[in-house]
Amino acid sequence: MANDADMSGWTDLLHSSSKLIEQAAPSAQFPPLQRNLDQLEALSKKLKAKTLRAEAPSQSIAATRLLAREGLNAEQLARDLKSFELKVHEMAMLSAVQEAQKDNLRSFNDYMMSVLEPAAAFRNVYDSLKLDSSGAKSVSMLKIWHLIMALMGEDPTVRRNISKRMSLVMGARRHLECGHEKYVMDMIQSHPAQAALGGAVGNLQRIRAFLRIRLRDYGVLDFDASDVRRQPPIDTTWQQIYFCLRTGYYDDAREVARTSRVSQQFTPLLAEWITTGGMVSPETAAAASEECEKILRMVDRVGRPSYDKKKLLLHAIISGSRRLIDRLLRELPTIFNTIEDFLWFMLSAVRDSSVGSSTSAALNDGLSPYSLEDLQAYLNKFEPSYYTKNGKDPLVYPYVLLLSIQLLPAVIHLSKDIGDDGYSVDSVHIAIVLADYGVLSEGSGSGQKMGMMDALLRHLA
To answer: Where are the transmembrane segments (predicted)?
Structure first.
């Protein structure tokens, strides 16, 4: 019954609304709208939401008025609250960082204590060995084997009509050049600011970086000068050529000589020396020797700065004159810094005494060439202890023997008991390699070969 009454009520309501619609006159300003119940519900919810948003500002305004009546600035209070929140956050972060630092410090201290205990034990063991740590040995067996490999190698840039002995000389020279290249790179890495190498990686750029370190007390160098008229730079032409050759950068040395104004006459001499592997013509040797004599006369008269000595050394190398080289060793005994520099210079100046034509022509001009035998005789004037510092560096002497192509004496010396370590096994291996290449007896006089071979066999027996 209740349902029937409800339906009757809804029917009456619908009938009344229909009559109102029929009676209402249409209006141009307000067109008729028709909505169902779902649409009416959605519109009512939307209207309610707008009403709530409109009430919020009124509440904020009321709160602001209340604070104003109490003499408080609402905006300033809001800023103070925001600042307080930030300070609280910062204090919390700072506290967390400090706690983390304390934890890290405790962990580090624990770790260091654990490390120090093994370190102390190692120190006790090391001290008990009573080792002499005054300095590392300059020559190791590994370095000697590197030299052996260089002696056996060939230089494809040099003509092949050279003797086996000169091929060994050139191999020894290449070994010293490789060692100097490592020295140059170590210097650059140890002094990066002074070297100022930057992104340049060419060979000549490395040499110039090396010269910035070596000549740092001489002022502005020519390749770094921006205005040569305002501040005349130091001319490093001969330094660049010398150290390019010393490091094995032959093409760069030739290019520096070609492009420099002060070395134009030297350029063809250097080119011939490089191309022929040192076996220059008598005319070239004579021209270089004449320039050496001129430089030495200037040294005797007024003296020259140290960097001009490189010009003297370069011309002496090309001259290959025994008389000039003996004079340099006699009058300028401190011109070389290391034994490697000395041996490289001497090996560069050595001429092949087996080449008869060049030798005879040189002798006719009074320019007896410096031979490998001359170098060996000079080195053999000193006792082995001179090279090994009384046994502290025992492999230096056999190293010098190998560099001067005294191969058989070097093997015999290694077969003896030298130093604290025995090298007899290495001497056997080196002898086998040299014999296999057919060079074991090279560099020894014919009268010495048989006696040395007998001595070697006795030591190896």
So the answer is: none
